Amino acid sequence: MIEIKSIIELLIVMIGIKMILEKWEPPVPVSYQALLMLVIGGLGGWFFNQTKEGLITGLIGGTIAFWGRKIFAEIEDLKEANEEVK
User: Fold this and answer.
1) Domain locations along the chain
2) pLDDT tens track of the chain, all 86 residues?
3) Looking at the whole model, is its pTM more than 0.70?
4) Could you give the 3-state DSSP secondary structure of residue 19?
5) In degrees, to the nearest 5, what angle opens at C-alpha 67 toward C-alphas 25 and 7?
6) d(CA 50, CA 43)
7) Which of 15, 25, 43, 60 keeps 20 to 30 A from 8, CA to CA?
8) Are 54 and 46 a contacting pair, CB within 8 Å?
């Protein structure tokens, strides 16, 4: 089991790398940024826990690091749409 502290540290590192890549000159294509976040997340998760669970946790962390704001905005939109239906 990966500790929460390790997951948070991995997320902070990946978010920092994403911020650097966004400002890189010449610009790094978004698709390369996404792949890099997944690779770093997967390797980081594997480093903390050498099991399939560690790898999957790292991949999820990479996804959150890359798409974080958009994921949470979509969740908010779904919650609002659900409230409108009720």
Assistant:
1) 4-81
2) 667 787 788 888 888 888 888 888 888 888 888 888 888 888 888 888 888 888 888 888 888 888 877 877 888 888 888 877 76
3) no
4) helix
5) 100
6) 10
7) 25
8) yes
